[in-house]
Amino acid sequence: MLVHTSAVAVLKLKNLELTAVEGSDVHVRMLAAPVNPSDINMIQGNYGLLPKLPAVGGNEGVGQVVAVGSSVSRLKPGDWVIPASAGLGTWRTEAVFSEETLIGIPKDIPLQSAATLGVNPCTAYRMLVDFEQLQPGDSVIQNASNSGVGQAVIQIASALRLKTINVVRDRPDIQKLTDRLKNLGADYVLTEEELRIPETKNIFKDLPLPRLALNCVGGKSSTELLRHLAPGGTMVTYGGMAKQPVTASVSLLIFKDLRLRGFWLSQWKKNHSSDEFKELILTLCDFIRQGQLTAPACSEVPLQDYQQALEASMKPFVSAKQILTM
Question: What is the pTM of this model?
């Protein structure tokens, strides 16, 4: 069990006693749990939701039900479950949770897809659907396109027959990354530098200006996304990797009437019922079954090697998500 004992990445493995299974309790054996940027932010103490310390790390993952209490009605031994909300603490081998903190999911999807289902694909789907009424043939522009959310956006947009313009940071293996994103369904892949050159406007001879921009970076990158938005379009910010503010010129706001919005899945869950979250999960499972949504590129790491996984997840230009296996 991974417990972080302070807000500054102090993590250690620790054996804790399991409580007895009673009433609405569910004994879960964890199968796999990813290391997400939000997990790191939470450990560093700069996330919008912080647990009481000491706490178990990890906000996402998949487990299998071992036993249930007498008043549990929705789950049975053998079922796969994921956290209903953040802060559950998934970096552990097993735990006893309350039934309402868990959502049952189908077992006929790949383990890596199940482990990474509850955060990034949910964020991608909601941002594509909730802010603009997009129709097949419309386009979306995004930065951090090789992130977990970015890869999900590419695939879900492709399934919805939307075109994507995908911006990434330049790197030594840029062609390899471009090919991988295009294999997922990306229509265009550009570096931040390429997005700034005048010739980029030629792309929009072949497709409509994007009405939706998805920003996970901030700073200059988000300003460039805004420049390419259609009049009346919306930029949704869901992350700030550059740790720089979003800057929108007055002329873009006045003459193009652009909208700046934010999205946080935890807030969406607070505003919606658990049944609506379950419906979202089942929609994504349908995409997975149809081969339209795959897990991001993953590296599986045994739980006891958690330090290796955390270090790898914080390196620049990471192209594989670290998944702790129990």
Answer: 0.93
